[in-house]
Amino acid sequence: MKRRDILRFVPAGLLVAAVPAVATTYLTVEQAQESMFPGRRLTKAFFSLSDEQVREIERRTNTNVREREVRMWRVEGGGAFFVDEVVGKHEFIIYALGLTADGSVREIEILDYRESYGYQVRNAEWRRQFIGKRAGDPVRLTADIRNISGATLSCKNLTNGVRRLLATYEIAVRNI
Amino acid sequence: MKSQSEIFSRARPLLGTLVEVSAWGEAVAARNAIERAFAAIGEVQRLMSVHDPESDVARVNREAHERPVRVHPWTAEVLRLALRLQGESCGSFDCGVGSRLEKAGFLPTGAAPAARSASASARNIHIEDSSMVRLRRPLCLDLGGIAKGYAVDRAVEALRATGIARGLVNAGGDLRVFGHAGFPVMVRDPLLPGRLVHLLTLRGGAVATSAGYHCARRVKGRHVMPIFDPTRERFLACDSSVTVIAASCVMADALTKVAAIRGAAAAPMLLRHGAHAFWWQEDRIYTTWEAECRAAA
Q: Taking the model in full, what pTM does it have?
């Protein structure tokens, strides 16, 4: 690695003011639909799960159904598109799942990633980022996850969510 | 006249974490490049995931103590590098200690059904004829400390091969950038992971950080991260983090383990590989950058 590739580093012992939250938006629902099923028509087909369906999904997948409303679109020619969210201890992820006509996964795309540890930012540091700023100066309130080294969150919640949606499709839509 | 370059980013669950691929350029070219990058990541997962029963790693763990197992050239490349690093790091970097991780609950049980010996290590792994892997005794091979970095490198290679001049791949915190004017790299406070600090700014290169904030477990009364120190026969505590920068992500990834285990003693090895480490412990950051290095406690 050449020295000229590294522009800056923090001298030992000196820490710069921290950023309180992480937020990155990757795609809107429409963009994800166009990306997964280019040129195909999608028809909104939202529905609510019955008690029995919730029980069967939870039994089959060993996950919790937190939200009864299923945001599904039927894909012209076969397949389905879902928008769902998973909530971790500090993360909130909205994602889209595309299924092929036979109910298998075509693609998973993150739409929105949000993270907050809020209370851990000390007040003095939070204020410091405003000192010297003039009205209209940009204030960095959020960081993008792409800039973070060491996130290493497990995608377990996300893969559980996908399993839950796959079971939802089988039970509530294909009736198997 | 330079054309406007827009950023295109996608994030997908892969390698047990979230992987983001970003490419700067024109829409069609960028999207195509991003798909190829994700395909490369998917290939590394298919070959090296310890969870996938059909992966090279799983097949080695099941059969290679009985007969040699042929692996993909990428798997062989990673294994050869892992074995070389084991020698260079005086045994600190060891991809053959998977059964310790299994026992501590960091890996699912059944990853290596025949592995029972607590003293198995990567020294028992042998590569013949460039891609045949043989185990001298049953063990659990785990490439978790190096495969993510390798996947990032393969993904960056895929982006560049389609002509992208500026991009980045971030696989759960193992990241590599190229073609930037100045890319800010943030690192989490190991004791307050919601607190992000702008540690450095890169034009190009790779960064990896080892820490315990998302994967800690209690083992023998200690709060530990999934890095096993074979020289002290125990897992590393969660109270600190180490960040390594290097030209490739596979080296940054692997060297975080060496730097975490050996502390300042890792400095000669890091410098030999053109890498630097930043140890963050108790509100202070120690680094090889200034060639001044005090032992991380």
A: 0.91
Residue B142 near residue B148 (C-beta atoms within 8 A) = no
Q: What is the ipTM of this complex?
A: 0.89
Closest to A98 (Cα-Cα) out of A120, A114, A78: A78
CA distance A52 to chain B (A): 30
Q: Are B200 and A19 within 8 A, CB to CB? A: no
Looking at the partner chain, which of A1, A108, A146 has a beta carbon nearest the beta carbon of B9?
Answer: A146
Backbone angles phi, psi at B283, to 5 degrees: 70, 10
Pairwise CA distance, residues B182 & A6, whole Å: 9
Are the CB atoms for B248 and B281 separated by under 8 Å? no
A19 pLDDT tier (thresholds 50, 70, 90): low
Minimum CA–CA partner of B169 in chain A = A146
Chain B contact set for A156 (CB, 8 A): 16
CA B176 to chain centre: 12
CA distance A11 to chain B (A): 8
CA distance B57 to B52: 8
Q: Is B77 exposed, middle or buried (0-12, 13-18, 19+ CB in 10 A)?
A: middle
Least Cα separation, residue B161 to chain A (angstroms): 21
Contact call for residues A16 and B189 (beta carbons, < 8 A): no
Rounded CA separation A72/A84 (Å): 9
Q: pLDDT band at A138, cuts 50/70/90? A: low
Judge: A116–B194 Cβ closer than 8 Å, yes or no: yes
